[in-house]
């Protein structure tokens, strides 16, 4: 499973808020398909400028909603059932246990081309 998230918070510090537009410009996501291997994903996760956004504990400063720009836990080699948009709302943050309960809303494109949304709660730990 390939799971890569870029979290961009509405409640980031002023310094990071200024950098957000630059980071969004750099978050170019492309999917190209080949007849032999299915989709090929090109993430910006290896960009050194974006590393600071990969650890939410370092830049999240409030419990406002997040927009995870790119998240894929798709196991289909044809690119079906891809999660194209994830909105996560932090419910609370426990600094001692580094656990964070979230409510997630997913937009999923199915194999038939239909879109659906799923809501669920999850506790994330570090």
From TrEMBL:
Domain of life: Eukaryota
GO biological process: symbiont-mediated perturbation of host defenses
Pfam families: His_binding
One GO MF term: amine binding
Annotated protein name in UniProt: Putative lipocalin lipocalin
Species this protein is from: Ixodes ricinus
């Amino acid at each position: 499973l390939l799971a890569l998230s870029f979290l961009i918070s509405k409640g980031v510090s002023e310094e990071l808020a200024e950098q957000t537009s630059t980071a969004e410009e750099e978050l170019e996501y492309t999917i190209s398909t080949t007849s032999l291997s299915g989709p090929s994903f090109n993430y910006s996760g290896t960009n050194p400028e974006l590393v600071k956004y990969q650890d939410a504990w370092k830049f999240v400063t409030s419990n406002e909603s997040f927009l995870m720009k790119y998240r894929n836990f798709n196991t289909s080699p044809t690119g079906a059932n891809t999660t194209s948009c994830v909105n996560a709302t932090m419910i609370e943050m426990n600094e001692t246990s580094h656990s964070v309960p979230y409510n997630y809303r997913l937009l999923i494109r199915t194999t038939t081309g239909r879109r659906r949304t799923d809501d669920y709660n999850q506790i994330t730990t570090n």
